[in-house]
């Protein structure tokens, strides 16, 4: 699992050379398939065994990465040792500066933690906690302590979930996300297992000593669904099934986060009846739309690796462009509903903020969507991060819905 092994094939010297670098992240694989067919036709002419299309794509990908490494090594030849002729790997001299070593470790953990998901988790808990606040005196040390306990416990569980997903997808990430620590080789499997096990234990330990039923329930359900989503054992690895994968993300991001963490503050911290107010119902419904969009959109930049390893996502089945515009349509419907909810607000300040805020977000979404180059993986990934920013912005608006 730690290395992507592709066997080499002997080739007569009279064969024409082929480019080592190929854009594997193109939304269409037509050019790659054509090149694959041309290569196999030439091989047949000279009696060379043909290779499968899957191995061809992987060979091209490895070749492209090696070309980039060699180019980088030439820029910093004073720090890199390269022996291409003897087949030795590219190695960097270890840093002797403790600060550089610490910085590198923190950077690797930062990427391993998938920070955009951590930010979303923290903002969502703060936002739904504020929905339980009814008067100014509710902003007490008790409230701040209860909210902080929920944030830390959820953060620990978030690291477990995203870490397990990377541990289960090492080979796929070598194609789709080679910058992640496991895919790049910065983390060994043993290191990743130690990290995710430690954070899972700390999450449950904190949830247990706090003694909040809703909080512990949120952690347990997130653990079960996150494990079933990623782990590669019989009957699990639900991410292989597009509809079930979307349901997992919806359950955690839309239902568990809104309802369980709200009840943690409302019932456990404040000791009030477990009643779901209009803002809580709105937040759950709106984030259900948003969670479906995130579940669909996250696979758009990863279509190449998903195709190679048999992940039947909606993007693989329907194509990038169709899924892209389905996501935009779902979000625009959600914003329209939010505007209508704002019109029914009992307070004028709530009405103005809710309507104006969602009109602004809907306009920004449409403006950005029209300019996205669906032929560029970098552009699609950048827009995916923009959707997460809209996700964050919504949690700033939710407490104003009254």
Automatic annotation (TrEMBL):
Gene3D superfamilies: UbiA prenyltransferase. It holds the Pfam family UbiA. InterPro entries: AtHST-like, UbiA_prenyltransferase, UbiA_sf. Its main location: plastid. GO terms for molecular function: prenyltransferase activity. It is a multi-pass membrane protein. Keywords: Chloroplast, Membrane, Plastid, Transferase, Transit peptide, Transmembrane, Transmembrane helix. It is found in: Plastid, Chloroplast membrane. GO terms for cellular component: chloroplast membrane. The chain crosses the membrane at residues 142-167, 215-235, 241-263, 275-297, 323-342, 349-366, 378-398. PANTHER family: HOMOGENTISATE PHYTYLTRANSFERASE 1, CHLOROPLASTIC, HOMOGENTISATE SOLANESYLTRANSFERASE, CHLOROPLASTIC. Belongs to the UbiA prenyltransferase family. This is OLC1v1035111C3. It comes from Oldenlandia corymbosa var. corymbosa.
